[in-house]
Amino acid sequence: MNQQDKFRGEVTVLDGGMGHELKLRGISDGSFVAGVLANENLLQASTVEAIHYDYLAAGCDVVTTNSFVAVPRRMRQCGLATDGPAAFHRAAGLIRSAVDRARAATEIAHNGEMQQKQKKIAGCVPPLTECYFGDQVPAIEDMIPEYHLIVSTLVDCKVDIILCETLSTKREAEAIFRAISQSTSQHTPIWISFTIKDDNPNELRSGDSLVDACSQIIELASSLKLPLEAIGVNCSTPSAITKALLCVSPLVSGGGVKLCAYGNCFQATTSEWMASLKGDNDAKTKAAERVKSAGDYDHNGYLLPRAYARYAREWADLGVQIIGGCCGSRPQHMKQVTSMLRS
């Protein structure tokens, strides 16, 4: 067995996207709020569980809670709570419901044909504000109470992993770690992942340096004695992620922290969408940051599963040990990934 085959055999496969899948199955309008409310809707919860199960059936080892916007300030902004205490209570309830949906799927998997390998639940710790926009991120001290609620609720629900994802600033990561450190009994493994500029993979979407962010967070985890298990990049184009991994890889080499990666599967990039919101309708991401061939997309502009699996193979060959899918990825993508990694 060569070194690349060895890396592929050691990869943990995270699930793919949830929000877009809920939209395709007619459960939500595509908004994160509609998706998270499906966890507690008697007519929709079974579809959330079915999506989790489909990812497990595709070969994924870990499913992520459907709780991306279950945060107190989003509860107030969306009219689901009228004051601070109510917002905290509402967010915690939605997080618990999301864990219940994921656990129902893993229990079915363990009782069926997938009982040979333990499936795990990653509890989602998301941005507190609109993701990608670093200028909207509050001060560290202002974020700690909300992150403490999110993390403590997930830990109380006994998730297997704390997954801090789609962070666009260093201060979000620091606030999360400060919140986690307030819980003296927190031993749940932590994975943390940043979102980067599609046309400049060396920077987070806020403009923070990716290398500086990762270095500081690794040092902070060590100083606070937190169980940081993995660090990486998500919610960006696959080609940008490949370039970012080349920058981050030396930081974790031999240090006991794993690399994680999970990319978007839309032809239109997040950087282009953000530019369009600013009125720059002619903004285009460099061709090199797009998928390598137009033939890698279907007629709706979605990256084909076989094309996504090629990127996953690149990441595995770089030593990435946790690979999943982000926005636009589906169970079909992850089935191709698992087949490639375990063939």
Observed structural traits:
343 residues, 13 helices, two-stranded antiparallel sheet, 14% strand, alpha/beta
Protein described:
α7 (140-156) links the parallel β3 and β4 (161-167). It is built from 13 helices and ten strands. The protein starts with a helix and ends with a helix. α4 packs parallel to α13, α8 (170-181) packs parallel to α9 (210-224) and α12 crosses α13. The strands form two sheets. It has an eight-stranded parallel β-sheet with strand order 1-10-9-8-5-4-3-2. Strands 6-7 form a two-stranded antiparallel ribbon. It is an alpha/beta fold and 343 residues long. The longest helix has 28 residues, at 84-111.
Give the terminus-to-terminus CA distance: 13 Å
Helix share, percent: 40-55%
Helix segment tally: 13
Give Rg in angstroms. Answer: 19 Å
Average of pLDDT? 91
Which sheet architecture does the biggest sheet show? 8 strands, parallel
Beta content comes to 5-15%
- Using the alpha-carbon principal axes, give the shape: globular
Order of helices and strands: HEHHHEHHEHEHEEEHEHEHHEH
Strand order of the largest sheet: 1-10-9-8-5-4-3-2
Task: Summarize the SSE layout with pairings.
Blueprint: H1 3-9, E1 12-13, H2 19-24, H3 32-37, H4 45-57, E2 62-64, H5 72-77, H6 84-111, E3 120-125, H7 140-156, E4 161-167, H8 170-181, E5 190-194, E6 196-197, E7 200-204, H9 210-224, E8 228-234, H10 238-252, E9 258-263, H11 270-277, H12 305-317, E10 322-325, H13 331-342
Parallel strand pairs: 1-10, 2-3, 3-4, 4-5, 5-8, 8-9, 9-10
Antiparallel strand pairs: 6-7
Helix pairs in contact: 4-6, 4-13, 6-7, 7-8, 8-9, 9-10, 10-12, 12-13
